[in-house]
TrEMBL record:
Full protein name: D-inositol 3-phosphate glycosyltransferase
Annotated organism of origin: Cellulomonas persica
Superkingdom assignment: Bacteria
């Protein structure tokens, strides 16, 4: 091959989106560009993120200038809050409108809200290929409609594709239950897409193994590509500076109803009340409340009620300000939903800060594996207020247990968990042969 290989990357959440997985998407396209690929991204318009989910404009500056980004429109009626645009049916009979809307959404692909995007996304992918032949398509989910568009290009032009699962489609990662029957449209689509994929990526071993058990014919093409932290996005975080007063605990991440916020705050209050934490200690939470641009009111109320207990919510933190957020913390709190298949992108950043970590999540959570070699982790045995209070006290004690050997261990762990270390083997393996 005399020309550089050409990667087509299909993603809904891409900078300036602040949605989950955007850092993985950003790092992936940059890694391929660094490896000498021509890279074209097809994603949603900026307005989509600004209007519906919230945006982080600083992320767009991090896209490698060699990467070509093509944006196409995306309509999301279900998230439209402007009632002036509502149809008479939606105003008069919202449940009926919602049912009919879902049927329309799933006409060409069984994914509510995203199904209609299949046609414009597939058309944009074909236009990219017609302009400059594509050697490989890499589609990331969710939404899973990106997989369908990659499959459409494979059928039309023979372009191989990789499916990057950041989550799961027919598996509830929290409960471990299968969400659809084997004969459902979703299950049939998933089987078809997996069967024709060149590779299928998963972010942790439990997710990969579950899919390998359910789709054994594809198991040899399923690989784990962990998340990681990005040196380009997270400059070195200096050691915590000694200061007067109590310890500064901090949590950074999207707060959803799955996060054990109630147990965390109850445990915090208990540890402060009985003196297990130094007087004057604070707990600062940063991040979006929910997945959409409008914060979830109940979560905001819970945090507001905790303000008198030394708890402070500072709102979303732009990626460019993340290092400063971590620098102002003595101990980091990692609060996650329960489930063996649950993973976290944030845990890798936490490791990179080399701060003590209080792991407020089910021990069976896949994130436990990431922290297995971390020497400064206070773990809980169960997601209860009592266990959280105990772990917070243990985390406070870890602040004074940072010797030279501990620092060396943390340096080695952080280096191993860099995102480029996770991506490099796959980028190399997917490069077309020179004699092709």
């Amino acid at each position: 091959m005399t020309r550089p290989p050409h990667l087509l990357y299909l993603a809904w959440g891409f900078p300036p989106s602040r949605a989950g997985g955007v850092y993985r998407a950003l790092a992936t396209v940059n890694a391929f560009a660094d490896a000498g690929w021509d890279v074209t991204v097809v994603t949603a318009s900026r307005e989509t993120f600004e209007r519906y989910t919230g945006a982080d404009a600083s992320l767009e500056e991090r896209v490698d200038p060699r990467v070509v980004v093509r944006r196409i429109g995306f309509d999301w009626p279900a998230q439209d809050t402007d009632i002036r645009r509502y149809s008479p049916l939606r105003v008069a009979l919202p449940p009926v409108w919602a049912r009919l809307r879902r049927l329309k959404d799933e006409r060409t692909f069984p994914e509510p809200s995203y199904g209609p995007w299949r046609a414009p996304l597939a058309a944009a992918a074909r236009a990219v290929h017609d302009d400059k032949p594509v050697d490989l398509t890499l589609a990331t989910a969710n939404p899973h409609v990106t997989f369908a568009a990659a499959h459409d290009l494979w059928r039309a032009a023979g372009v191989p594709y990789v499916m990057d699962y950041r989550d799961a489609w027919t598996l509830d990662v929290f409960s471990g239950r299968t969400t659809t029957s084997a004969r459902s449209r979703v299950s049939r689509w998933q089987a078809r897409l997996l069967a024709d994929a060149r590779e299928v990526w998963f972010v942790n071993r439990p997710l990969r193994d579950w899919h390998a058990r359910h789709f054994p014919a594809v198991a040899d093409r399923m690989v784990v590509v962990e998340n990681g932290w990005d040196p380009a996005l997270l400059p070195p975080v200096p050691p915590a500076v000694p200061h007067d007063g109590g310890l500064r605990f901090a949590y950074l991440g999207t707060v959803t109803p799955k996060v054990p916020l109630g147990e965390l705050l109850a445990g915090w209050r208990a540890a402060m009340a009985d003196g297990r934490l130094p007087a004057g200690s604070t707990l600062t939470l940063g991040g979006h409340l929910g997945y959409f641009a409008v914060p979830q009111g109940p979560l905001a109320e819970v945090l507001a009620d905790a303000a008198t207990d030394g708890v402070r919510y500072v709102g979303p933190v732009a990626k460019a300000q993340v290092a400063d957020f971590y620098a102002n913390a003595d101990v980091l709190v990692l609060a996650l939903g329960t489930g063996r298949y649950v993973t976290s992108g944030k845990v890798y950043e936490y490791v990179a800060t080399k701060r003590p970590i209080v792991a407020v999540h089910d021990p069976a959570n896949a994130t436990t594996d990431v922290l297995a070699d971390h020497p400064l982790v206070a773990r809980i045995d169960a997601v209860t207020a009592d266990e959280v209070a105990r772990a917070l006290a243990e985390g406070a004690a870890l602040v004074d247990r940072q010797d030279e050997q501990t620092r060396a261990t943390l340096d080695a762990l952080a280096d191993r968990l860099r995102r480029d270390r996770q991506l490099a083997p796959r980028v190399a393996a997917l490069r077309p042969r020179e004699d092709a």
